[in-house]
Design brief:
two-stranded antiparallel sheet; alpha/beta; about 280 residues; eight-stranded parallel beta sheet; 9 helices
């Protein structure tokens, strides 16, 4: 990976090795039940464990994007995030926190009122046409993920004429140009593993991940316990830690800058080993 930096509320944080983003779910229907933190004590415990295990960033989400998940209203998403962020900030006042939402108004409130620092948008701006304006206005780091359609329709939209990697690059590049023209400096690219990709396309994208470096942005990889490993191996999400670590290690070898994970300790160990290997 290339070193990168993020401007977090005027504080420049430099990352000279890959970072770990810990998933903090405040939703009852996440695909991995081991990540669901619903009570105040559960959320606080999850945050403390993530930090103790070496998390660099916390990512809090209140809307499950798994296929078939229930729709969550704006008000319910906001209620969950308000409660969750209050606990996160009481336990961890200084660590960077990203809010996982595709709704611009929800993102704005989380940044302006609730202490979030980064916007993580699974839709790459396509589900809310106010999102890019909001990011530009707030001047916060933005995670631009590749997806087609919605979580309900995305798996019917997997036809990439020139190949999946080429398609991801072609669809993200104009958005990056648009954001740059709007004055958004800190953009992280997420190729969207599992979103509008077949099982085979996910692995093609993983093998060719280094090609996305041409976009000139840090690369975030989120494969933790996803169906690209569970379906391939015929296992459940609860059984997928080892497989996730293997895929994360391949991603690190192919230029990943951030690993978004449920299991921070395993990801940190993979990073430590790859970092040592690269220096040897």
């Amino acid at each position: 990976m290339q070193p990168f930096s993020l401007n977090i509320r005027g504080r420049l944080i430099e990352y000279n090795r890959p970072a770990v983003m810990a998933i903090i779910n405040v939703t009852p229907d996440s695909f991995y039940d081991g990540s669901r933190s619903l009570t105040s004590d559960e959320i606080a415990t999850a945050v403390r464990r993530a930090i103790a295990d070496g998390a660099d960033i916390l990512d809090i989400g209140a809307y499950s994007s798994r296929p078939g998940a229930d729709n969550v209203s704006d008000s319910e998403e906001m209620r969950r995030l308000a409660s969750g962020l209050a606990i996160v900030r009481s336990v961890a006042p200084d660590i960077p926190v990203s809010v996982d939402t595709f709704r611009a108004d929800v993102a704005r409130r989380c940044i302006c009122e609730l202490g979030a620092d980064i916007i993580n948008d699974i839709s790459g701006g396509q589900l809310d046409d106010k999102m890019f304006d909001t990011v530009a206005d707030l001047q916060v780091p933005y995670i631009l993920m590749h997806m087609r359609g919605t979580p309900a329709t995305m798996q019917s939209l997997t036809d990439y004429k020139d190949g999946v990697t080429e398609g991801v690059i072609a669809e993200l590049a104009p958005k990056l140009e648009q954001l740059a023209l709007m004055g958004v400096n800190d953009v992280i690219v997420d190729p969207g593993f599992g979103f509008a990709k077949t099982l085979e396309q996910n692995y093609t994208l993983l093998r060719q991940l280094r090609a996305l470096s041409m976009l000139g942005r840090p690369l975030l990889v989120g494969v933790s316990r996803k169906s690209m490993v569970t379906r391939l191996l015929g296992i459940t999400a609860n059984q997928a830690l080892n497989a996730t670590t293997v895929v994360n290690t391949i991603a690190l070898c192919n230029g990943a800058s951030i690993l978004r994970v449920h299991d921070v300790k395993a990801a940190r160990e993979a990073i430590d080993i790859i970092t040592c290997l690269n220096k040897a």
